[in-house]
Each structure stands twice: as structure tokens, then as C-alpha cells.
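PROTOCOL LOG
Step 1. Enter all chains and additional molecules of the complex.
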Amino acid sequence: MFVSLPIYDQLSPVIQLFNQFLSFLLIFLLVAIIPDLVSSSTASVTSPFTYTNSKVKIAQERKEAKALLNWKISLLIKSQSLLSSWAGTTPCNWVRINCDQSKSVTHLHLSGYGLKGALHNLSFQSFPNLLNLDLSFNSLFGTIPSNISQLFKLSILNLSANQFIKKIPSEIGQLTSLYIIDLSMNCMTGLIPQELGMLSSLSDLELSSNNLTGVIPASLGNLRNLTTLYLFENQLSGSIPQELEMLSSLSDLALSSNNLTGVIPASFGNLSNLTTLYLNENQLSGSIPASLGNLNNLTVLDIGNNKLSGSIPQELGMLSSLSKLALSSNNLTGVIPTSLGNLRNLTTLYLYENQLSGSIPQELGMLNSLSDLELSSNNLTGVIPASFGNLSKLTTLYLYKNQLSGSIPQELGMLSSLSDLELALNNLTGVIPASFGNLSKLTTLYLYKNQLSSSIPQELGMLSSLSDLELALNNLTGVIPASFGNLSKLTTLYLFKNQLSGSIPQELGMLSSLSDLELTSNNFMGVIPASFGNLSKLTTLELGVISDNQLFGSIPRELGMLSSLSNLELSENNLTGAIPISFGNLSKLSTLYLHMNQLSGRISPELGDATQLHVLDLSSNQLNGEIPKELGNLTLLIDLFLDNNKLSGHIPNNFGMLSNLDRLNLARNSLNGLIPELENCKKLWVLNLSNNHLSKFIPLQISNFHFLQYLDLSQNLITGEIPQQLGDLKTLEILNLSHNALFGSIPSSFVQMLSLRSIDLSYNQLRGPIPNTKAFREASIEAFRNNKGLCGNATGLKACPSTISQVVAIKKFHPRSEDSVVNLKAFTSEIRSLTEIRHHNIVKLYGFCSHPRHLLLVYEFLEGGSLEKILNNDELAQEFDWAKRLNVVKARIMSSDTSYWTSFAGTFGYTAPECAYTMEVSEKCDVYSFGVVTLEVLMGRHPGALISSLLSSSFASSSHDVPLEDVLDERLALSTNQELEKVVLVAKIALTCLHTSPQSRPTMQQVYQKLSNWKSPFTKPLCMITLRDLIDLGNLN
Amino acid sequence: MAPLSLFSVFVTFLLSLTPALSTNSEGNALHALRRRLSDPTNVLQSWDPTLVNPCTWFHVTCDSNNHVIRLDLGNSNVSGALGPELGELKHLQYLELYRNEIGGKIPEELGSLKNLVSMDLYENKFEGEIPKSLAKLKSLRFLRLNNNKLAGSIPRELTSLSNLKVFDVSNNNLCGTIPVDGPFATFPMERYLLPFSSLTLSSVNILPFYLHFMDY
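Step 2. Run joint prediction.
Step 3. Record the structure below.
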């Protein structure tokens, strides 16, 4: 593909015996010999032309010269200068051109000549004798002209590695002498022309690395002489045509990196000359055909990165020539066949990223040519075979992410070529073999996330090539060997989450290549070695969360010399003293975690020089003094946590410049003064200033934090009203303003805070209604405790005295022409009486409309629906105690006090019988309705059944003997005598209002008077009073 | 043959560099997101895929088991598109990508974020339809997709999101009808739609339209 090779017949089998990588180099060496071979072979091919008459010969030579020069001048100027020898009329003397004996051009070799231009201007018809057109590795662009079919003697067409676009001309199918087609590494699109199937001499077809689409034409199965078929790196789809099984000469087949689907044809097992088979990176499914085991010349089988399922056929163990077997990244199940142990020439075995189970066959230990063994990311169990110690050529061993158990065989220490050993993410137990100290070429050792115990062998300190040592997440004990100081190439050392103890060896300070040192979550004690100041390449130092006992002493100021340091984590220790001033020199420091220590003193202003800081966490220390305003220079800060210290003074005003701040937590200090406006902190989603001495007001600008999710200003000295603008925080979920001195009412805008789920307003001076939203309704009483009179719809909170509601009740007078005067009179008298009486139990008149056609009164709406709702809910009904119920009864009076209802708003169950028949509404109808509602309030349910039994039976019947006590709402107890008297009185009034004869019912005026002096008509105990007693007393007069 | 072997040697080489990554699917998913996004202000600079987990990356929050629970990239000036890998963040609770220039479709794989509480994709350039798969997000409380270029209708399937409290799809190109079941049933629709008389969303893109049902 790189070069045209007229030597394929004799040499290619030889090449194929070589290791592929070597062969690649070899080809380059051979290129030097090619010209000789070419001229000798072309001489014999062109001999039939020797008889040609000289005149014709000269004409032909001139024609070819002209065509070549025309093409030359069509190329870009620079390319023309490359072809400076192309001048005159005798092309056979020009560079890169060969002719036959009749001086006609047969070979055009311009591979890698740096040419830029198109191909259209090359007049193909001028070259009747051209055999070999090699323009590979140039920068030719445009399409491949279809008239290329005029080169009818063409044997080799190599246009690879250019920038040709669009489709492959199907006319190429007419060039029946073609032996080699190489169009690889272009940008060609469209389909593979099925006409290519007519080129019966074709031995080598390479269309790889283009953007070809569609299916592989079945006609390619006709190419019986084909030895090489490369279609890899295209976008071919569909299944692999069965017809390819007819390509009996095929030696190299590469269809990798396409979108091929379907199965691997089992008939491929008949392609007995196949030496390499690449089907990797497709969407092939189904199982691996066992017949592939017949391909006994096969050296490479790569079918990785597909969707193959089923188990690995043990027949693959018959592929005795195989040097590479890649079945990785499929869905293969079952066990690894022991027969793979027969593949004695195998250098590479990839089975990673499947679902293989069972144990690793110890027979793999017989593969003594193996250099790369990767079985990672499977479900393999059992132990690592000790026989692996025989794999003396092994450089890479990946067994990570399986479920391997047992101890690590010390025989692995014999793998003297090993450079990369990764056994992480298994269940390995026991010790790290001391024999690992022999792995002198080891650069990477990953044993993390196992259950390895005991101490780290000091022999690991002999691994002088080691650059990456990760032993984290095990149960290792003991100390870090001082010998680690010899690991001069070490760049990464992860020992976190073990149970290592002792002090941190100061020898680690000698690891001059170290860039990442993570020792968190161990049991170290002692001080941080000052020698760490020598680790000039260190970017990450994590010594935090050292659980049992701790690092103490002060932070060595030498750490300030680590000019590469980007992450420093020393949290959760017992470090004392001040934060070194030298930290201001850490110009690359991006994260600084010092939280949960005993650090004291002031935060030095120099910290503001560490301008790359993104996260600064100094929380839970003993830091005091003021917050230096220089921290306001750290404009990259995302998280700033200074909470739980002893900081005092004001919050620097320039914190408002921290425009990247996501989270700001200054809680639990002694900060005073105003809450800064934080005008540019537009990204904040957490703001916690609680537990300070901040005073004055909540700044209005707080509503600029459009994305705030968490706001805690509790336990300060903030006063004033809660700004209405706070309601703009539509994404706020948690709001705590408790323990301040806020007054006024909760802004009505709070109903817009749709995301709110937790609220605390306790211990303020707030009054008035809470917003009627779910977050408030479902808040515990604790959230409202100790205020000056919050009310509203939340458990444990008093209902508000009057509903501020937009819903009103409207009474409409029917304007009947005949008595419109009467109507108007009643209308005005009601307005007058309602405006004269001012009592909180009397329904409010909001206004009226007096129009010849519409007489309307607008009242406060007393929710009828809510009465039913309350009485149906046991919990609410219990809260609706007798005192409240008696008040409601009084409140009802005025709302019903009219003789002029014309549109009856109640439901049928509240209507007097005579009113229901006639719909003729009178005052007596209203009185009846009042009686029903009142009885409902007392009974806690609709009194329909009781009323009908009283109405339908004679006064003498037993239904009148029911004790009043049995009728009253049993969910409430009568507490006081006074209450009892009132209930009896109200019950009596209600029953009087329900008299069957409208004339016997009292007027509302009478009812009002009775209720005003609360005189009980009885002296006997409640249990003795029956309904008969109440009715027996006759009407109220 | 020669280039192919070179190619495979190269691929092998690449694979040999990545073992630590392949064990960390959440980090891989976030790193894949990084590759899809253009990040002129370098907010994703700390996203180093060679780390054991992404918990130290900025704008990423993990729980105590080192699972990613928050992704906070609101107001970050990033553009590009989201990919299916985000669906790997199985523990994610907050997906905050508001106010950026992210376009393309909302990947249907976001429907596998079973623990998601909040999906804030508002003020971006998302197009295509609202994926039906979002109906699988049973913990979802906040779904804010407003101010994008979403088209199609509101999927009926979203009516199964019983925890949904805030649903904002205003200022898109949505059409069709508003669902009336599930959390949508308690939404006081007339309050917002009566002026437009028909219960369709055809004019949603001009309405300052809010559907919310945390109350009532």
C-alpha cells in the first residue's frame, strides 16, 4: 500500500513469514532495489512492441510528452518545479518515467513526490502502453476521472494516500489487466463498484481508510486470484458476503473498523491460505465459528471490539502458526479453553473486556513466546497460575478487574522482562511477594483495590525503573519502607486507604521525579517531613483524613517551595500553628484543603498571591483575626470555605469580585458588619453566613443570585423586613433565616419560590400569614416558632383570623320590574345595616353594584367548601374545637340575614322543603339553611338523616328521645360548663330554625339576640337533655 | 500489510495506556462529555481522566462512596452537545447545565439517571424533542428546559413523574396539548391559559409560560 511492489510473487511469502513490524521496515529497505527489478521485468512485458515503425514511435513519444507537460502545467506551481526535468519531447529521459523499447511510456512512478493538483488534466488516452501508474503519497485532489479506463493495459494502479474524493469510477472494472488496485487513504465516498468483480487477474485490492459506504459487493467473490483484500477503516455496512469464501488464494483479509453486522461466515474456515484475518471493530454478532481452527497458516486473528457471544471454541488451539489472538471487547462467556496453551508461537493474547468466567488455565503458562497477556475486565475467578512464572518474555500482564483470589504467586517475580503488571481490582489476599524486587524493568505496578495485607516489602525499593506504584485500597500495615527513597523514576505513589502507620519517611523527599503523592486515610503519625520541600515536580500532595492518630506539628514552611504543586490536601489531622506565609509562593496551587485541624493564627494576606486557587477549604480550625481582603484577588475561586473558625471583623467587600464562586461558607465565626452585596457572585448556589454577628438588613441584591439553591443567614443580628425580592429565587430549595430580628410579614412573593423544600423562620419578630404553599404547609412548627404572630395553613400554626382572599361571595337581586322599588329598598337597607355594624363575626361587605338591571352585593367569601373539608378530616375536625365552632355559627348570622335571596347559593341539602319545591325564596328559607349549617357544625357531619327522621315522625316518636350528647361531634369533648351551655343553646336555636312551618321559625334578628346573651335554657346535665327537650321549649320567644 | 500492523501496534499502545480509566465509568463518562464540549474559559481544565475517580474535579460533587451526585456547569460558557455517556452517571442527583450554549438533542440516555432530582438545561440551544425516556426519572423534582429550541410535543409519558414539582418548558417551539394526568392534573391550567382560550401549547414560545404544581 505504501509503495507499489512488482516483486510480490517472489518475495511476499518471505515477507509474510517475518514479524509484521520488521516487515514494515524491510519494505523500506527493498524500495531501494526496486528500480532494477522494474526495468528488467518491464523489458520483457513490452517486447511485443519492438517491431513498431519508427515514425509512429516518434509521433507517439511526442504525444506522450505533450500530455505529460500539459498535466505538469496544470499542477500547482511548486509541484511544477519539482518536475523541472520534464521538458522537451523525450519523456523516456525524464525522471520517474520508464519506457518500453519503442519509447512509449510504461511506468509513471511519482510516489511521495509532493505533487499537488488534480488528475483530470492527465490525458489518459495518450498512454496506450502504460502498465504502472503510481501516484501514491502526494496531495492530489478532486475525483478519479472515469476515463482512466482508457489505460487499457494498466496492471498496477496506485493512487493511495492522496486527497481524492467522491466515488470510485466503476469504469475501473474495464481495466482487465489490473493486478493491483490501491486507492487506500483517500477521502472517497459512495459504494464499492461491483464491476471490480470482473477484474479476474486482480491479486491485491486495497480500498482501506476511505469513507466508503454500502455493502461489500458479492461480486468480489469472483476474484479467484485475490491474495490481499483490505477494506478496513470505512463505513461499510451489511453482513460479510458469503461469496468471499470462494477467494481461495486469499492470504490477507482486513475488514476491520467498519459497521459490518451479521455473523463471521463459518465458511471462512475453508480459506486455507489465510495468514491474517482482521475483522475487529465492527458490529459482528453470533459466535466464533469453530471452523476458524482449520486455518493453519493463520498468524493473526483479530476479531476484537465486536458483539460476539458464546464461548471461545477450543479449536482455536489448533492455530499453531498464530502469533496474535485478539478476542477482546466482545460479549464472550464461558471459560478460557485450555487448548490455547498449544499456541506456542503466540506473542499477544487479548481476551480483555468479555464475560469470561472460571479460572485461568495454568496451560497458558506454556506460551513461552508470549509478551503481552491481557485478561482484564472479565469475571475470572480462582488463583493466578504459578505457571505464569515461565512466561519469560512477558512485558505486559493485565489481570485487573476480575474476581481473582488467593495470594499473588511469588513466581511472578521471575518475569524479568515485565514492564507493566496490573492486578488491581480483584480479591487478592496475602502479601506482596518480596520477589517483585527482581522485576528490574517494571515501570508500572498496580495492585490497588485488593485485600493485600502485611507490610510493603522493602524490596520494592529496588525497582529502579518504576514510575507508577499504586497500592491504594488494601489492608497493608506497617511502615512505608525507607528504601522507597531509591525509586528515583517514581512519578506516582498511591498508598491511600490502607492501615499504614509510623511516620512518613523523610526519604520520600528524595523522589525527585514524584508528581503525585497520595497517602490519605492511613494511620500515620508524626510530622510532615520538611524534606518534602525538595519534591520540585510535585503537583499533588494528599496527606489528609489520616484516621487513627494523626499528623501533628506545624505545616513545614518548605512546602511553599513546591513550585509545581497544584493540589495540597492535609485535612483532618492535628496540625497546629499557622498556615505558612510561604504558601503565597505556590503559584500553581489550585486546591488547598486544610480543614479539620487545629491551625491557628491569622490567614496571611500572602495567600491572596496564590492566584490559581480554585478551592480553598480552611474550615474547622482555630483561625482568628480578620479575613484578609487579599482573598478577594482569588478570582478563580469556585469554593471558599472558612466556616467554623474564630474569624472576626467584616466580610471583605471585594468578595463581590469572586465571579466564579459556586459555594461560599463563612458560617460559625464572629464576623460582624453588613452582609456584603457580592454583586458579581452570580453563580453562587450555596451561601452560608450563619452563626455570626452580621447585622442590618438582608441586601436587596440577594435576589441577583438567580441560581441559589441553599441560603442560610440564621443566627445573626439581621433586622428589617424580609425583602420582597427574595421571592425571585426560583431555584432556592433550602432557606434558613432563623434566629435573627426580622420583622414585618413574610413577603407574598414567596409563593413564587417553587423549588423550596425546607424553610426555617423561627426566632424572629415576624407576623401575619405564611404563604399558602406546600413547603410552608408541610414545614414543622419549629420552622415558625417564636415569632410575633405567624398564622396560616400549617400544622401547629394558628389559622389566620381572616382570609385575605381574592374570592368573594356575590349576592344578586333579581330586578323584577313590578316590584323593583321594593327590591331597591331591600338592597339599600342591607347595605346600610352592613356598613353600620362592625363586628369581626359579621361577614364583611366589600362593595356593591347598583344598576337598573343588576343589583349586586359583594361579600367576603366564607368558604363553605372548607367546612365540609374540615369536618371530614379527623385531625382538622379536632382542631376545629367548640370555641371555634361557636364563633363560626355567630359569623354565619349576618351572611344569611336577608329576606331577599334570589339566587340560592347553597346546595339542595341545605334548602327548606317549601323552598325546594317552589324556589320561592324568603327569609324563612335562609333561616332554615342557617339551622342546617349550624347543626352540621355541631354534629360534625351533614344532619340530613337526622332532620328527615325528625320531620317524618310525630313528635311522640322515639326519634325525638335521642340524647343531644349522642348527636354532637364525638371527636370533641366539652371542656367547660360555659362551653356546654352555649352548645346546648346553639343546638336549640338550630332545631327551632328547622321547624317544618316557616311561620314557626325565628327571624335572624331573634337568632342574633339569643346568641348575643348566651343564656342556656337548661340547668340539667347534658346527658339528660334529649332532642325532644330542645324542641319542646317551642320557639325562641 | 505493513501499515495495518503499524496501526494495530499503535492501537495496542493506546489501549495499554488506559487500564486505570476503564475501571472508572463515571470518570470516563464525564471525560467523554468534556471531549464533546468546547470550553473557551477552561472550566473543565481540572478534569484529568488519569485520576482514580472524578471526585476531585471541579464542578463535580461525589458522595462518600465516590459516586458522582452533582454536575454543576451552569453559567460556564461551554458549547457543543451532550452524548449518551452521561447516562452512565447512575448516582447523579443534580444535572446543572443551565445558561450555556449547548446544542443538539437531549440524549435519551439521560432517562437512565434513576436518582436524578433536578435537570436544569434551561437557557441553552437544545433542539429536537423532549425525550420520552425522561419519564423514567422517578425521583425528578425539577425539570427546567425553558429557553431552548425544543420542538414537538410534551411527551404524555411525563405524566408518570409523580414527584415533579417544577416543570418549565417556556420559550421553546413546542406544540400540541398539555398533559392532564399525573402531576399535570393539579396544575391550575386556566390561570395561565385562559387568555389564549384553546388548551394548546401552540403559542408557548411567546407566553412567559410556567407549568408548576408544587401547590394546590
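Step 4. Note key features.
The first helix of chain B runs from residue 2 to 17.
The two ends of chain B are 72 Å apart (CA to CA).
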